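SEVERITY: medium
COMPONENT: batch folding queue
REPORTER: lab tech (J.R.)

DESCRIPTION
The queue accepted two submissions in a row. Attaching both inputs and their returned structure tokens so the on-call engineer can compare them side by side.

ATTACHMENT 1
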Amino acid sequence: MEDLPGIVITGASGRMGQMLINTVVDSDKAKLVGAVEREGHAWVGQDVGVAMGGAALGVTVTDKPLEAFAKAQAVIDFTAPAATIEFSKLAAQARAVHVIGTTGMTDDEIAQLEPASYHAVIVRAGNMSLGVNLLTQLTKKVAAALDEDFDIEVIEAHHHHKVDAPSGTALMLGEAAAEGRGVNLADVRDSGRDGITGARKRGDIGFTAIRGGDIVGEHDVLFAAAGERIVLRHLATDRAIFARGALKAALWGQDKMPGQYDMVDVLGL
């Protein structure tokens, strides 16, 4: 157990935070060495297992991330963009692998991760599941094979608590489609349609976001032309797939050179 990589989970009290904690605790390939929450949170100072309503795990929730990161070989982070940027600096100081599942990051925010990647491994992905990353590769290949007679729409559905739209996964799929077509997504993105929008522009990549209930995650990539449609689909029914993927990324990054990676690298796709 002593030789296993130590993992810190940020945003410990969140749904993904708790799922990640359980995944690490249940793993025989890593050990939980830290749990981080924001300053003033009710969990700070408590054993994280007790705070989650279970047995003590011997890990106290802290609001001092650098102290926690210094004891770890990896940090798994599904929080918010501003927090993730700060965590990237601290993880780099600790030379810990920083696995980022945070979504809703702008291009400017993503660019702010680059300095940390000079000193530590960063693995960032809009989605950590094997199936979604396979879907991403398929989307790129299909988009490359079809011309602009096929309209591309990315349709995603999530639970009603999700705060960003389109989802990080939807944008990842849109980027893959744009790459397949040899264009920049920013130049062809079409989202948030409402009212009299006019006809759909040829070559655009559209996005639709559905929010409701407890939907874990559903993503369709629709290629629609006159007389035929192709639909690539991924349905997630268990949030644990994201936690397992994140842990896989944390372990994969242990012997890698500093830099920025994604799940395509982790999965060898």
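ATTACHMENT 2
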Amino acid sequence: MKASKNLNRRHFLGAAGTLTAGALLANPMQSVAKPAAAKTKLALVGTGIRGTSFWGKNIVDNYSKETEFVGLCDLNPGRLQFALNFMGVKCPVFTDFEKMINDTKPDVVIVTTMDSNHHEFIIKALEMDCDVITEKPMTTDEIKCQAILDAERKTGRKVIVGFNYRYGLQFSKLKELLVDREVGKITSVDFHWYLNTYHGASYFRRWHGERDKGGTLLVHKATHHFDLLNWWIDSDPVEVTAYGELEHYGSNNEFRGANCRSCAYTDKCKFYWDIMKDQRSVDLYVKNEKYDGYIRDNCLWRHDVDIYDKMAVQIKYANDVQVSYSLTTYSPYEGFKIAFNGMDGRIDSWEGIPWREKERVSQAELHAREMNQNAEEDDSAYDEIIVMKNWNPDYELVKVPRVRGGHGGGDVRLQDKIFKDPNMADPYKHSAGTRDGAMSVLIGVAARKSIEEKRPVKIAELTDIKISRTRG
């Protein structure tokens, strides 16, 4: 394949495809008629770090008996070559998405492109008779969200949204306690998430720091958390009020450079990151800047940064549960605190709070552990959930085996469900489709609108999804 510096999204996506209806089934892995022993044919669009690792090499290493990659697609031919080598596959590569589908006839398309482009590839894949697995967030605004919903209804194909957090051991145990009504009817939730100065800052170096690409962290990051809330509470959000500011990163600094490598202020910038010490980032990004101009170690003080770095959101649910949520992007530690207030008591849990942790590791290492797909449970460590009943001075300590790698153990459980055993029992409804993807995105979109328009925003304003008091 010849490298080109003039590739564009029109060429990448290709011409309009043909609408073909498929079977409306619970899991995309089941929706393609093929012999029982046949492997599911996968095509990947978007060969960045998430695509080549979690949705790439991880699948090759762990699910090759069930799946095979038949095509990779990206605008950047250098990253495509890296993906082939890194993933260890020999399939053809494409810079034209529609040509990949026509030539390789995949059963399932995995979408891991820039968030703002997810809808294009999801819709095109559905129209070309493929099912879809998409990285979260499903999309970045209500118009694109509605278009995805319409395409799924029209084509009969299906979309899975990769909400791995649902499958984490700690979060699953919280769901179990809530289903069992351990503290009675839930009335309110306090949920606060802290990104440290290593992980939090990284969003502002990347394209995620520009709202037209990632929809702000209320969409890109917080959809993880909003989906957990929707799943735990088992009801639909109805109204959102939010506040947010950009007061730390972006223009809020006296100096800035083009990027970390060429910066004259490396000796005084506490956020300086030497990308050249990360060989994988060099091979994936630095060596391939010449094709599309994407700089991975951008200055987080650049004026183009226009997302919020502190956010507070109030959410009212159809079953009258009220939620107070916040997201901070420059905390000294990485973690969260959550509390469910019920009629009969309260459930508290947390992760990463330093004074509650016996072990102390660097904040950079914490993030590396979270993203590590090969981490194992540590029998000597556990996460804690406190269940306390009203009128009782005692409390129950629920110990959950600690898994710091792979998003609390959720990554492997999500992919096992998709690729190994789509029919496995799922009593707590971990699997997420377009409705789940939409509702998490719509909270973030409503929060963004609330900040911009200085008003409460009704979820029903945004799409044609009918609000339900109980999701069932």
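NOTES FROM REPORTER
Confidence is low (pLDDT under 50) at residues 1-28.
No errors were logged for either attachment.
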